[in-house]
Design brief:
It is a single chain. With 89 residues, the protein is mostly helical. The chain has a single domain, classed as lambda repressor-like DNA-binding domains (434 Repressor (Amino-terminal Domain)), CATH 1.10.260. The chain is built from six helices and no strands.
Length: 89
């Protein structure tokens, strides 16, 4: 039986390692906040439109709370973008 650990794969394929610009939650939070501000929208208004409390939006933007895929898609839709764009470094 051949066993290849994630560590070995990463060593053998350095191009497949994750970006060093931050983890997905940090990238999502930064992009969410940037786009929200670009649209001139408050955390309260974004939360209201998405059916969330303002404090939840704040927690997501500060990486305090994890966001589900469903919630992330809802936020992206309200901001007029696709989910993948909020995950793009």
């Amino acid at each position: 039986m051949l066993w290849i650990s994630a560590w070995n794969v990463r060593i053998l394929c350095p191009m497949s390692s994750p970006p060093t610009t931050g983890n997905a939650r940090e990238i999502f939070a930064k992009n969410l906040r940037h786009l929200r501000l670009e649209k001139g929208m408050s955390q309260e208004r974004l939360g209201e439109l998405a059916g969330f409390h303002r404090t939840y939006v704040s927690q997501v933007e500060r990486c305090v709370s994890n966001v589900s895929f469903d919630s992330a898609e809802r936020l992206a839709s309200i901001l007029g973008t696709e989910l993948w764009q909020l995950l793009k470094p």
